[in-house]
Amino acid sequence: MPILDERSLEFHSHSPEQTRRLGVRLGELLKPGDLVCLAGDLGSGKTTLAQGIARGWGALDAVTSPTFIVINQYRRADHAVLYHVDAFRLSGEAEAEALGLRELFEEGGPVLIEWPERVQGLLPERRLWIGLRWVDESRRRVHIRATGPRYEALMRRFRRAAFGG
Ligand SMILES: Nc1ncnc2c1ncn2[C@@H]1O[C@H](COP(=O)(O)OP(=O)(O)O)[C@@H](O)[C@H]1O
Ligand SMILES: [Mg+2]
Predict the structure, then answer these.
(1) What is the pLDDT of residues 79-122, one digit of tens each?
(2) Which of 2, 5, 7 is nearest to 149 (CA)?
(3) What residue's CA is closest to ligand 1, atom 25?
(4) Is residue 143 within 8 Å of residue 130, measured between CB atoms?
(5) What's the predicted TM-score (pTM) here?
(6) What is the CB-side half-sphere exposure of residue 90 using CA atoms within 13 A?
(7) 140 CB less than 6 Å from ligand 1?
(8) How many angstroms separate the alpha carbon of residue 52 from the centre of ligand 2?
(9) Of 29, 47, 80, 84, which is most buried, counting CB atoms within 10 Å of its CB?
(10) Which residue's CA is the nearest one to ligand 1's atom 8?
C-alpha cells in the first residue's frame, strides 16, 4: 500500500466486499461535521463504499428523505444522523443550495457526498476526498486525500485501522 505523503493514501480494493469493509473502518472513525467526498465514474464503487461507511458509523437502516434519492439519511440508535448525498441528478449548485446542502455541512452529522464535483463551489475546503477508479471487473483503485488537520488525523487513523501501518 503506497503512502504517498502525509495527506494522501492509495490502495486497491479487490472486491465489493473489501470496499465495504474498508468503508466500515472509515465509518467507525467519523464524527459529526465530517465531510467525505466520493468521486469517480458510474460503477467505480462510490455507493458500495458509502454503504460500508454508514454501517461502520452504526447506521440502523436507510431512511429516504423527502428530497428523494438526492439526500438519504441514516439513523443510529442514539438518534444521530448521517447524510448520504448523491449529487448526480442535481442540475447544479443552485439546486443543491435550495435543497439545503450548505446547512448540512454546517449543522450536520457526518456527510457523504457522491459526485462532489457537481457542487464543488459549495464544498468546504476541509474535507476527505476519496477518488475511486475502475481497474477491472473486480478491482478498484482508491485514492484518499485529506485537507485540514482533522482530516489528516482521520486519514492516519483510518490507515492504521485498515492496514495496520
Ligand atoms: N472492488 C470493488 N469495489 C467496489 N465495487 C465493485 C468492486 N468490484 C466490483 N464492484 C461492483 O461495481 C459496482 C459499483 O457500483 P456502485 O457502488 O453503485 O458505484 P457508483 O456509486 O460509483 O456508481 C457494483 O456492482 C459492485 O458490485
Ligand atoms: Mg452511486
Answers:
(1) 999 999 999 989 889 999 998 999 998 877 899 999 999 999 99
(2) 7
(3) 43
(4) yes
(5) 0.94
(6) 25
(7) yes
(8) 13
(9) 84
(10) 138
> Taking the CB of residue 15, how many other CB atoms lie within 10 A of it?
12
Q: What is the pLDDT along the chain (165 residues), one digit of tens a residue?
A: 666 788 999 999 999 999 999 999 999 999 999 999 999 999 999 999 999 999 999 999 766 554 556 888 899 999 999 999 999 989 889 999 998 999 998 877 899 999 999 999 999 999 999 999 999 999 999 999 999 999 999 999 999 999 996
The C-alpha cell of 62 is what?
436507510
Which grid coordinates are listed for 10?
A: 492509495
Which domain covers residue 101, as residue numbers? 3-163
- 19 CA → ligand 2 middle, Å: 13
Nearest residue (by CA) to ligand 1, atom 26, is 16
Here the CATH number for the domain that contains residue 119 is 3.40.50.300
